[in-house]
Write a structure and sequence with these properties.
Shape: elongated
Strand content: 5-15%
Distance between the termini: 43 Å
Largest sheet: 7 strands, parallel
Mean pLDDT: 90
Low-confidence stretches: 1-14
Order of helices and strands: HEHHHEHEEHHHEHEHEHEHEHEHHHE
Radius of gyration: 25 Å
Number of helices: 16
Length: 449
């Protein structure tokens, strides 16, 4: 796991590179890789004095591609990077995709490194292995440049390539470097952001997404809580990738910065789960105006700001995507003394339906999940809220949770994993034709018609 940051290598070189150009190139390469292979990927960017010098020399060569398009020159280049870096004079998604497809048609694995003129070195890999590939490609570029000045390269021949590709020792070495994955892998290498990931349902959903193979941005205003979630995921899934994103969903600039940081680190976005929420419980006659406005800000404005920023990236990336709003049973079946929660949770459902209509042409699906009462790790179901519920039903505080469980048809407590499973489903290809829908996970308390 990592805190906010960038995978770019910093240097004192004089070249000034716009962050927006780097991020645009990441989205371009990620889309091209996806179109050619059908695989989701993390895109890393590196730039230092060595890369700058290599890029300058290759750019000035009569035929830059000739330096990089030969066969691999050593086992590391073949095993870790699928050959040399691809020379990219201009970030054109279609051209890069065609180069990938040509490699695949020749029964070669697609390149994992890309030297983009004027920018630097981009690498398709998990952060855990990207720096290894960078070192290998930087060294091989040095060798290739110098060899081209001294009579040319001596590359691996076909027999040597086949031997290395099938050599058990090399396969084992690559597996050790990349770390084997575990879990269902329904969301393998997809990049997700989950708000409210520092506790309760947000935490459960983030863990469920990681178990399904996603790289998860843990967005929460409670950074310590998000760090705890990252630690839980890392302990269970050592090969997982998480980023802690300090996020106030009601702050427009902060939200935009969160997504910029995500692209800086991972190079794309596939899934947004809006799970951060509040539930100020008051009778109508006692409801303070500031509590009403607070609920509107977090539960509606927060969902809107996150979805707006996420959809802008997804549209630009042009790979489709999924947005899941965590609403509530109270969004379809109002509860007593819960005006702000009832209104905002119903609003989230309708906002999501409208977004689905707008974003469908971009293959971005928008659905909602309406959980029943999830007590496990919840900040909403705190002692004060339980006291209010006890008073509402004329029962003791310790009787509140059993009382709510008996209101369900299954008479079973709903766990965070139950909600996480539904979110994973709606985010996955199994739900590829499902949008503008509401999935109620409440053990049979409310009936939707």
């Amino acid at each position: 796991s990592a805190k906010l940051g960038s995978t770019a290598s910093h240097s004192k070189t004089k070249q000034k590179i716009k962050k927006s150009d780097i991020n645009d190139a990441k989205l371009c390469i990620r889309k091209a890789f996806f179109e050619a292979t059908g695989q989701y990927a993390c895109i890393n960017f590196f730039f230092d004095e060595t890369i700058a010098a290599n890029m300058k020399q290759i750019s000035s060569a009569k035929n830059p591609e000739d330096i990089l398009t030969t066969s691999p020159i050593n086992p590391d280049e073949l095993v870790y990077a699928n050959g040399s870096a691809m020379w990219v004079p201009k970030c054109d998604c279609e051209q890069i995709s065609q180069k990938f497809k040509k490699q695949i048609s020749l029964k070669k694995k697609p390149s994992l490194g890309f030297l983009v003129k004027g920018l630097g070195l981009f690498i398709v890999a998990k952060p855990t292995t990207a720096s290894v590939i960078r070192d290998i490609l930087s060294s091989s570029m040095n060798i290739r440049i110098n060899a081209s000045k001294l009579g040319g390269l001596i590359c691996l021949n076909k027999r040597q390539e086949d031997f290395i590709a099938n050599w058990e020792a090399e396969a084992f070495r690559k597996a050790v470097a990349s770390v084997a994955t575990t879990g269902s892998q329904e969301l393998k290498d997809r990049i997700a952001v989950v708000t409210g990931a520092g506790s309760g349902l947000g935490r459960s959903i983030a863990i469920g997404m990681a178990r399904a193979g996603a790289m998860v941005g843990l967005a929460d205003i409670d950074q310590n809580g998000a760090l705890e979630t990252a630690e839980i995921i890392a302990n269970e899934l050592p090969s997982s990738s998480t980023i802690v994103l300090n996020c106030n969903v009601t702050d427009e600039k902060n939200v935009d910065n969160v997504f910029e940081s995500l692209i800086n680190n991972w190079g794309g976005l596939d899934i947004l789960v809006n799970a951060a929420g509040v539930a100020p419980a008051f009778a109508l006659t006692n409801l303070p105006l500031d509590k009403w406005r607070f609920a509107l800000e977090v539960n509606l404005t927060g969902y809107f700001l996150m979805a707006r920023a996420a959809s802008r990236i997804m549209i630009k990336q042009d790979m489709g995507g999924a947005i899941v709003n965590i609403s509530s049973k109270s969004g379809i079946d109002a509860s007593k003394n819960n005006t702000p929660y009832n209104a905002t949770k119903a609003g989230e459902l309708h906002m999501g339906r409208g977004w689905a209509m707008e974003l469908g042409t971009h293959n971005i699906r928008v659905n909602s999940v309406c959980p029943g009462n999830v007590f496990e790790g919840s900040k909403i179901w705190n002692p004060e809220y339980i006291k209010i519920c006890a008073k509402k039903y004329g029962i003791k505080p310790e009787e509140v949770i059993p009382y709510y469980i008996t209101k369900t048809m299954l008479n079973r407590e709903i766990k965070g994993q139950d909600i996480a499973d539904s979110v994973v489903f709606l985010s996955s290809d199994k739900a590829r034709r499902i949008t503008a829908q509401t999935l109620v996970v409440d053990a049979g308390q409310a009936m939707v018609r």
